[in-house]
Give the backbone structure.
Amino acid sequence: MSEIKKIKNLKEFSTSADRFEGANLLCPGCAHSIIVREVLNATNDDLILAASTGCLEVCTAVYPYTSWDASWIHVGFENGSSAVAGAEAMYKALKTKGRLKQPDRTPKFVAFGGDGATYDIGFQWISGCFERGHNIMYVCLDNEVYANTGGQRSSSTPIGASATTTPAGSVSYGEKKNKKDMLAIMAAHGAPYVAQVAPNKWKDMVAKIQKGFAAEGPVYINAMSACTTEWKFAPEDTISISDLATDSLVFPLYEIIDGTQLNITYRPKNIIPVRDYLGAQGRFKHLFTKQYEYLIDEWQARVDAKWEYLQRREEASV
Amino acid sequence: MADTFELRDIEVWDGNMAASHALRQAQVDVVAAYPITPSTPIVENYANFKANGYIDGEFVMTESEHGAMSCCIGAAAAGGRVATATSSQGFALMVETLYSASGMRIPIVLNVVNRAIGAPLNVNGDHSDMYMGRDSGWIQIDCYNPQNVYDMNLIAFRVSEDHDVRLPAMVHQDGFMTSHTAQGVKTLSDEVAYNFVGEYKPMNDMLDLDHPVTHGVQTEEDWHFEHKARQQHALMTAVIPKIQAAFDDFEKLTGRKYNIVETYNMDDAEVAVVCMGTSVETAEEVSNELRAQGIKAGVVGIRVFRPFPLEQIAAALKDVKAIAALDRSSPHGTVGALFNELSGALFNTDTKAVMTNYIYGLGGRDLTKAHLVEIYNDLKANADAGKPTTPLQQYIGLRGPKLSFF
């Protein structure tokens, strides 16, 4: 197994060699680039990357330019997982046949996809790859909306968010369905490692990415990616919004090992009200009216119940 | 190291088994596939070879045909030999990724065991899936029997992977009529077959870790047009000479001669049937019988459907007086695709043959010798009259009213 990269502090982290260039077309303040850099910088190993159609893809590989200093492939919206799985299968074949050009090196295979590509259209392909046990890492850049195409709802969009296909209006509070629990679904595939991460908690994230790279088999990482454009907050507030998400426990940070062992990896010292998280984003603005205010209490109750559930799972160790 | 499979000089194989052995002998690095009738035995046979030590490449059974081709693209871009198989509905599900593979200039060999596309659901052979792929940017090579399937697979790898081509290739055979009908197939030893296909030579391979490469970029109005034009240019100019060169080498190796356009009884033919798949051999037999009756009947078989060999087809048909294009796919809204292709090939030539179109064999309906006699009789009447005496498009073998048009 390859050596685990040691990173002491944020300065060292931010100046380590980039295989994802700052020269890209992502929105100022987009969390995608922060997450991608954190994933890529977590290892010194070679990387073979795939991306599904989406913000990351259209902003980093517009001919004749590329932002990638590692091999990278995009095929379609739904199949980044299968594309990188194919590359991983080829690696195994060429290794068996003694035809690798650099036989002493062990590349890591990583696919990135947005929540639309992951929770919705690419779900079947991801499930297939995980069932087959490819040695790949799938990272969902979860911004809870089809951001690349202008803010349509996905099955990751949370209740009450106003999206362009579930807009808030005089008789609607926006999205009506609860966010799909992808982490539980991927853990149920028996994946050796799944984890939820957030870019503001970079040490937690790097540790999880490194655990994922060390695991044998398919690894799922659900990365919260605050979207300045569709969540409607100022571009300079990406990290503070992310802090509100993790400290209100709207995005609890935890991992599940071998499909059963759940560990909470971040416990906020001061848990802040969900109201503060919702209030910081334009997509929830309409909840702060008399008509829809009751939804904020319901939100808090759901987050409390999930936190309780996660703690019980952790205690029970099942 | 995979074990050598000792073959007899002539094996009794159906088309599926012929394809499976060709993939095995080509030492494909990754096969990613999803089973669908009637192509299923190709991957079943392959799995059996793998389970018994005859294959040391990877075999990935995916969750769908779309996933299979997606995997194939990733595998081929990584830098090795890739193949798969499908039919019908599975082919339809793959279509999005077929365009990706050709647009990304990724060599892959896809065995398409031709089958109807529903609705109504139908498992039998027609050319609906093959026709669905005709604008996808793939090379499409057509087989008439299991021997063709074996030979064309070996040839397809060579052409597809050629660095001047770098385009994926389909090898077509008729569902059940070829895929499940056993015939004598002349074989090559594993070593000879592999040497003919050649070592895979990677290009822009993702697994060359010292030379990272970006595959599958976005191009808008600034570059998309140039990209697609170059893809089309490669398909139209590079492929036919490479196939011809492969045919020439193959003939030297085996004595089996293939042609870009297959012709039979065409030297002095006055009337010609143009068709694909298993119908070609039936038409050949009928043309012999009709010649005994004084009708100068010939047959043109399409061997390479994409790129469509416009010049070679025009040359093959230049002296005939009446031509029937036989399409085994419902054209839905126009004349059959083969009729259109032939019209395009002949339009600016001196050939003034009367052209008619026959739709036949949908959903596995047999094309009998009697049907072909009927067609040749129509052609004879058209040739004698020097103008159409029959409707432009007719159904052959259809029950009930004729339903022809024009």
Chain A is about 35% helix and 15% strand.
